[in-house]
Amino acid sequence: RWTPGQIIEDAVARIRAQVGAERVILGLSGGVDSSVAAALIHRAIGDQLTCVFVDNGLLRLNEGDQVMATFAENKGVQVIRVDAEERFLSALAGVADPELKRKVIGNLFVEIFEEEAGKVSDAQWLAQGTIYPDVIESAGGKTGKAHNIKSHHNVGGLPEHMKLKLLEPLRELFKDEVRAIGEELGLPHAMVWRHPFPGPGLGVRILGAVNKEYADILRRADAIYMEELYSSGHYHKISQAFAVFLPVKSVGVMGDGRTYEYVIALRAVETRDFMTAGWYPMPYADLARISNRIINEVKGVNRVVYDISSKPPATIEWE
Ligand code: XMP
């Protein structure tokens, strides 16, 4: 049986042999796969690797800073951080259809990634965090959301005209092996064990048309939810949890006054393969604490609900 250390050693040797003295670019999302790929390739070829991290304005609270702290500051990885919030939000203005939002976000991501990759003028390789289940999935010719996941997130089929060679060092690994080598490479535990996060980010967790006000409210509610899941020990028992912003207003009371504010829905599911999922039986005491904190601490929210739908027929994401 291979140990994480052996897998790393082997991969490092292979990457060096493949790449030689050439330059590599990688789209870093902050997710497990691209993060482990970045750390592994950096271990192999150091500054020959340049990562591009696109902040689309639809990330979780402080996520961009965390990615920069982990890779650029701690590990000395070259990361180009692109602040593209305004571009994404203006491209999304008035777009309410979920699949159209995915398309807008995915296309703009590719456009920006290409712009930035073009600046690394002598790059010959495009690295991706493709893992073994992705390979199987695309061989099976799945379409729709599942395919979309990889075409967006792993930058599948990216700049064809750039004639980049593909570097996929995780291609033969399963998720648990990827996590194990991530730990061995010294990535933060929280990053390695993070729940999956969709490529379109908060864009599909704000129902309907997206704007900055909604994204800011959702980010703050989601951060409280995650903080509470970590501190209560639920986080690692749950496969995926997140908050959803509902753009409807309901009436509440606060002190002597009447409020008329937005609703936050909380989702938490248990699943093995994400094809079917059950809602997580969160204890009432935890729900009560999370709800109180969100309503007290997040301006613009006066009601919190918990999603008790399983997949199928509901999907895990609300869009
Ligand atoms: P659903 O909502 O289809 O989600 O039950 C199953 C898993 O896929 C993730 N997901 C996405 N990931 N781009 C992604 O990268 C997407 O457009 C997308 N839509 C859903 C979802 O978070 C869950 O883990």
From TrEMBL:
One of its GO terms (cellular component) is cytosol. Residues 2-194 form the GMPS ATP-PPase domain. ATP binds at S29, G30, G31, V32, D33, S34, S35. Its EC number is 6.3.5.2. It comes from the Bacteria. It catalyses: XMP + L-glutamine + ATP + H2O = GMP + L-glutamate + AMP + diphosphate + 2 H(+). Catalyzes the synthesis of GMP from XMP. This is GMP synthase [glutamine-hydrolyzing]. It comes from Geoalkalibacter ferrihydriticus DSM 17813. The gene is guaA. The chain holds residues 202 to 520 of 520 of the full protein.
